[in-house]
Amino acid sequence: MRKTLISFIMLTIAANIAAQDFLSNSEINSQWRQKTISVKNGGQTPDVVKLLRAFNEVMPTWTVNQVLKQADHPAKGTRQSGTAVIWDGEEEDDYRILIDRRNGYADLASQTDIDQTAADVWRKDNGHRIFALSLFQQHGNPQNVLCWYDYDPQTQTMTPEKSPLDDFKPSAKGAFVAYELPMTGTDFNIIEYYPNLPAITHVYKWNRKQFLYNGVQMPDFEYRLAPDSKSATRISQSGHAFSHYSLLDPTDSGNPMMAFCNFVDGEVGDMMLIGDFKGNHVALGQKTQDGEKLNLFYAPENKNGDQQIAVVYRDMAGGLWYHIMLGNLVQYLVCDLPNFANPEKGHTVEITAGYGSDDETTEVINLLGDWIDIMKRCQWSKVDIQEGEEEMP
């Protein structure tokens, strides 16, 4: 009896140790494309939990394991298809688990830096299923892994296949690319994030056969007409009805500026260039059909050896304003205006806004380099500004 009890204890310990042996995101990322997964009793209509379980048996992760625990033993007061708030010892480590079998969605989400996951199932007209699993590691070296499978009800297996993310190419250097598995609906979104700019969301529509690219959406956002302006206007209320956007990075900094335009008779009509000053979006300059022009020049390097850009727009007759840019960041604003008080003294040149750094100098306007042909550099794409959808802070 004693020998049997010891054997049972050892087996229990071994099982617990095995259950703790989860794979990292890096290990999952290096393995999933080579693994075809059998789904036990998958049948014709496996739900998201059954497909998650099959994946976890082959490539176990802590996050998926937590979701399956909730699926098997729902927390008190919750339904099997509802949500649960669970604490892992301390309140600051809380996370939420959502399991929605009916709509084919499950996730573990948190506002803390623990690993997170989301899973989705799409139904195909031929009876197959698309199963997508996202694994997000926030701590240490952040890593987002997307696993994408086709489930065949005849063979009850999941076979790796390409996702829209595999063929996606960012619009410019410096992008942080993320994606969204839909909690509701069927769209799959890929999002480009650039420092100091609105997010660029690429929408892929599901037609029960495949995902088809459906263009770009962007949140409505506020911008100021000048760095030192106190008032702001929404881009949807600019009065220009912008229909296209482009990213512009003449110095290859990885921090591009963002251009918007509309088209009139097949030609670029009104145009606006957006950058950032002290955390606020700023209109760097405009080109309008009324004659307002938008010009860019290479400017001298700053004291760190970084190439700068001067964005010029006309403010009044005989006067110019220069935004001195580092990437998409306004470093300072120089104005060159007529001296109305003493016309014989010519123009007055001064710095009107900036960070107060040693790099700020009015001499920059005498040292401008080559003109930058912005029209040749812009690659225009259609954009749908989502009025009412405010930019996330």
How would you describe what is shown here?
The chain has 393 residues and is mainly β. Helices cover 13% and strands 44% of the residues. It has five helices and 25 strands. The protein has helices at residues 2-19, 25-31, 48-58, 62-72, 374-377; strands spanning 37-38, 83-88, 90-100, 105-109, 116-123, 129-137, 143-152, 157-160, 176-180, 188-193, 200-206, 211-220, 222-223, 233-234, 244-248, 257-264, 267-277, 280-287, 295-299, 308-316, 319-326, 329-338, 347-354, 371-372, 381-390. The chain has a nine-stranded mixed beta sheet, with no helix packed on it. An eight-stranded antiparallel beta sheet has the order 1-8-7-6-5-4-3-2. A hairpin with an 8-residue loop joins β15 and β16 (257-264). α3 packs across α4. The longest helix has 18 residues, at 2-19.
Q: Span between N and C termini?
A: 64 Å
DSSP helical segment count? 5
Query: Helix/strand/pairing class, anyone?
Result: mainly beta
Helix fraction, binned, reads 10-25%
Strand order in the sheet with the most strands: 9-10-11-12-25-15-16-17-18
- What profile does the largest beta sheet have? 9 strands, mixed
Strand content: 35-45%
Q: Extract low-pLDDT stretches.
A: 1-19
Topology as a string of helices (H) and strands (E): HHEHHEEEEEEEEEEEEEEEEEEEEEEEHE
* Overall pLDDT confidence: 87
Number of strands: 25
Shape: elongated
Rg from alpha-carbon coordinates: 28 Å
Q: What assembly state would you assign to the polypeptide chains in this entry? A: single chain
